[in-house]
Amino acid sequence: MNEHPTILGRHRLRVRYGETDQMGVVYHPNYLIWFNESRDALMSGIGIDVAAIERRGYRFPIVEVGCRYLQSARYGDEIEISAVLHYQRVARMNFSFEVRHQTSQRLLATGESVSVVTNADGKLLISLPAELKLAIEQALQRQQEISEHQPKENIS
Amino acid sequence: MNEHPTILGRHRLRVRYGETDQMGVVYHPNYLIWFNESRDALMSGIGIDVAAIERRGYRFPIVEVGCRYLQSARYGDEIEISAVLHYQRVARMNFSFEVRHQTSQRLLATGESVSVVTNADGKLLISLPAELKLAIEQALQRQQEISEHQPKENIS
Amino acid sequence: MNEHPTILGRHRLRVRYGETDQMGVVYHPNYLIWFNESRDALMSGIGIDVAAIERRGYRFPIVEVGCRYLQSARYGDEIEISAVLHYQRVARMNFSFEVRHQTSQRLLATGESVSVVTNADGKLLISLPAELKLAIEQALQRQQEISEHQPKENIS
Amino acid sequence: MNEHPTILGRHRLRVRYGETDQMGVVYHPNYLIWFNESRDALMSGIGIDVAAIERRGYRFPIVEVGCRYLQSARYGDEIEISAVLHYQRVARMNFSFEVRHQTSQRLLATGESVSVVTNADGKLLISLPAELKLAIEQALQRQQEISEHQPKENIS
Lengths: 156, 156, 156, 156
Prior knowledge:
Four copies of one chain form a homotetramer.
Chain A: E1 6-14, H1 30-45, H2 50-55, E2 58-59, E3 62-69, E4 78-86, E5 92-101, E6 107-116, E7 118-119, H3 130-149
Antiparallel strand pairs in A: 1-4, 2-7, 3-6, 4-5, 5-6
């Protein structure tokens, strides 16, 4: 997915007791909940309030998801999730995720998800809502400007 | 709650892996999910399809819930939940629950919940939907008839 | 529960997408997960790391819980939960909770839970772990000192 | 994964209220919980009690999972999940899943997961527990015999 411009968001959370299972580690489907939360935090970070955009009739169902679990997360752990939007100018949002133990930066899991856009009745839309497209392009523009002034570093 | 007519429903389920936590037993909020499922199974048992009645614009939010945990449930356990509707002829449904280990009939937890009725916008309604009221009263009538013919036994 | 000394903890969270149900509001068992998280945050606030104390062989199962739902919480809402420990010097911790919408301070729910202490095999202990007891008493002592210097205000 | 012998298990469930989200459909991470439940039902179907084998010190953590969502599942829907074990004689179990609406047999989602085997401390084992290996090979043998007598049909 390297050819597309990307936007990075970082999200932090602490593992809840109920997120563990009897193996003593985080039950694996919970990583998808974290991915979802990180995606929304990224959106929020570029000025998109997912709750508000849903009230205007849009939905962003996930149509594909994958996760590879490398090391366990445990109750109380501080977790950092990097979400990267790979922007393709179509009504389909590809995200990739890295889940790390916050202090050690050990990589716990990687994953990806694909979201589409529908109206409130679930009908697939063929373009992103204008406000979302604008927010993404403005974020990319800001990144570009930062990159030109600080050529050796780019947040994504 | 003894003074009101009651309807009993029994519901069975098997404990899922993800319902456990790192104590090795069922994480306590899951019992409320089981209560909810048992309530719906009871409704279904008297001919009410909760999904269908919601599509006609009714909602049955829970406004109060309580649970006392006596013994642990474990992954793979077959669980039996008795849900009892204490019918009060008002737009408020009081349920009580007993959670048992199916084979041993050991009592694992007891609980209760109160549901009200709202429209789709969350406005509180002051009477039960007619179809629900009818279904409850027919179920009570059937029970009454059974009780008259088999005076020593009553399913509730 | 007024007669016992109390310790207050405040915990904030943002409602996750997956915490909603098809009524469009937070699914009611999730409040118990929030209570649990708030309890642990309070413990952490007085210097007790619940994960660490569990590794030393203690468990704090919840044996009783109740919740009353007053108003709905929605996806994206910033929530503030006040957890209050009502300290009774026995191996039983009574907590009460208030769930508020953070900005408006509207009260969404109230609840309470009772935790006991067991060893790793689930055997009930008749006294709190010494380190927990000490942490609670030190927190109460600090509060007392604050209270003496600022007589008109008390964090609990 | 066609080259390996396969074992099929079917599992049925009814969508719980709390499995929906505010889109009015099943929240996507719940499919992974269903996959997990179906995997365990398949194991149970060939005579392996996952709870019991865990008590003997084995764990079967999932190291990789994927899901593609084709159509929505809704509250109250009867769901049928086909789980297929693709047996490779190594200490790694590859499963694939199909989630269908039970009555219409509409395909709702497909997925796959990979489980490894560890001891209770999380140490990776390089072979399956003997009892599991035996159960799988006996199930394959029974299938083979059925297949020889009814050449046109094979449950997998």
